[in-house]
Design brief:
elongated
Length: 135
């Protein structure tokens, strides 16, 4: 594992977290994550000699956790720009803390995003290797 590379690439979670505080939809957030994972996949392919899936998974996991922390630090602003989250919160059981539900949902989402990050890194590495072998 290239831990320095993982830590540096996971800082993209700060950018995603910040941009989602602005008024962008959840669909745009997903497209932003796709762009991040594609970019990270190419960078991991270039700088990690092995364990591309593990590097991509850890980058995705840490980036999503960082993004979640940004959302929690500015939770009221996040809610003001995402009325669909407020609607989900209104359907929770009375007395259940919406922040806890948010953390549970974000951690679940983070796991699947991390899998995507690992798969992208692995697939991009295979494609890049094949491209350079054919030259």
């Amino acid at each position: 594992m290239k831990w320095l590379l993982v830590l540096l690439l996971s800082l993209s979670g700060i950018a995603v977290g910040y941009f989602t505080l602005l008024h962008i939809s959840l669909r745009m957030e997903q497209l932003l994550w796709l762009l991040v994972f594609l970019t990270n996949g190419f960078i991991i392919s270039r700088f990690a000699e092995e364990k591309h899936f593990a590097n991509g998974f850890m980058v995705g996991w840490l980036a999503c956790i960082i993004s979640m922390v940004v959302h929690l630090l500015f939770y009221s602003r996040y809610l003001s720009n995402h009325p669909e989250i407020v609607l989900v919160n209104s359907k929770l059981e009375p007395g259940f803390d919406p922040r806890k539900a948010f953390v549970i949902i974000e951690l679940t989402k983070s796991f699947f995003y991390s899998l995507s990050g690992g798969i992208f890194a692995m697939m991009i590495n295979a494609g890049v290797k094949k491209f350079y072998e054919n030259r």
